[in-house]
Amino acid sequence: QKEVEQNSGPLSVPEGAIASLNCTYSDRVSQSFFWYRQYSGKSPELIMSIYSNGDKEDGRFTAQLNKASQYVSLLIRDSQPSDSATYLCAVKRRKDAGGTSYGKLTFGQGTILTVHP
Amino acid sequence: EPEVTQTPSHQVTQMGQEVILRCVPISNHLYFYWYRQILGQKVEFLVSFYNNEISEKSEIFDDQFSVERPDGSNFTLKIRSTKLEDSAMYFCASSGAGGRTQYFGPGTRLTVL
Predict the structure, then answer these.
(1) A107 pLDDT higher than 90
(2) Which positions in chain A touch B5 (Cβ < 8 Å)?
(3) Contact B99 A108 (CB under 8 A)
(4) Which residues 22-61 of B have a C-beta within 8 angstroms of A?
(5) What dihedral do alpha carbons A40, A43, A47, A52 form, nearest 10°?
(6) Closest B-chain CA to A112
(7) What DSSP assignment string belongs to chain B?
(8) Tens digit of pLDDT for each residue in B46-104?
(9) How far apart are CA B50 and CA B41, in angstroms?
(10) Can you spell out the DSSP letters for A73-104?
(11) A69 secondary structure, DSSP code
(12) A106–B91 CB contact, under 8 Å
């Protein structure tokens, strides 16, 4: 089973629509969840982080986390052609009781999003 | 806005040669990381570094790899004897106190011939 799983897409939405991106993870001790955007040939750029169950909104972006279902999603409202990119879901384990920081991010394969005018 | 920088942007080398990839993390950050991304594949963790020592490494990070923080600003990844399969984008990242959010540099494209 893949540790972090995303639908590779491509996901195509019209300009102005809502794009919905999904991610599931297998490690139950995961605690921190991140969405990165990656344009072709570029580095991952942080969009959102979420640590608690529920929704977190930042501008046109909303991240949703459900730890019981091991599921995290990203909604992009009013999608623009400039949002066309690969969206990476990344997961980090919690610190252990001894205080060791598990800094490793585990990435999914990414979902290619295309927003057409 | 502070950012992670990496040099060179592109490195071409012959198989068996040593390469050093350089990174300057964000100045007040404490945690440093290297990741790689082979073309068309996912981003993979290599190593994390904190308090002048490796805190975690992946199976990819074998004896051919090493990291160093030679001074107060640079963070380097050395590959001793490059293989064809080391061809990839290498990303440096850093995070501040608490180590929660990682910010990535622009990457170094390594091509091994």
Answers:
(1) yes
(2) none
(3) no
(4) 31, 33, 35, 41-45, 48, 50, 55-56, 58
(5) 120
(6) B40
(7) ----EEE-SEEEE-TT--EEEEEE--TT--EEEEEEE-TTS--EEEEEEETTEEEEE-TT--TTEEEE--SSS-EEEEESS--GGG-EEEEEEEE-TT----EE---EEEEE-
(8) 999 988 899 899 999 999 999 999 887 899 999 999 999 999 999 999 998 777 789 99
(9) 27
(10) EEEESS--GGG-EEEEEEEEEPP-TT------
(11) T
(12) no
The token duo for A97 is 């009781």
| Residue burial B34-62, b: 16+ Cβ < 10 Å; e: rest | bbbbeeeebbbbbbbbbeeeebbbbebbe
Tokens standing for residue B16: 């068996």
Interface test with B, best of A101, A106, A109, A112 (most B CBs within 10 A): A101
